[in-house]
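Hello again, I could really use a second opinion on something today. I've been staring at a protein lately and its backbone has me curious. You're getting the sequence in one-letter code plus the fold written as tokens. I'd be grateful if you could look everything over and explain what you see. No rush at all, and the record is pasted right below:
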Amino acid sequence: MGVSGDGPYRARGYLLSRAELRFFLALRRAVAGSVHVAAKVRLADVVACREQADTTADRASLSRISQKHLDFVLIERKTARILGAVELDDRSHLSDATVTRDRFVNEVLEQTGVPLVRVQAAAAYNPHVLAHQLRLIGVRPRRTVSGSDRLNGGISPAGRHRRPRQRPGPRRPRIGSGRGGRLPTGR
């Protein structure tokens, strides 16, 4: 991943935690088609301050939004038009500091007309339920979730894709009994 140095920084290795990745994969299935999911986007990349930040208050406003990020942003695949944001709320969102941060983000997105969905963190996610929540804020993917993705978003608790269960075909009589390849005699 790079040379380890004596500086104050280190490579993280992964952009998303396991819980965030599990949600990200289910969210991608829920919006498959014309919608792209971007992870960990700066709030300042979704909303902007007035054109000229010439007062101290304007610079403070810019600083507040540039230091925060949104868990996921939904964008139109062909145009990159912002469709909405999704925040994954886990236990950390119960602390006073995070509640204050969440309230600020909610207000900014509401003021600017950017739809926001908050989803409670869980062990598994149903893409159909996520797609329904997104339709409530006006995000309408062109393709629906496939049948193989119906349970747990197609994701096992370990985060790997499940293989769709194969339906057994009609049973055929076995020829031979496994004893040297001889045919049964019908006795």
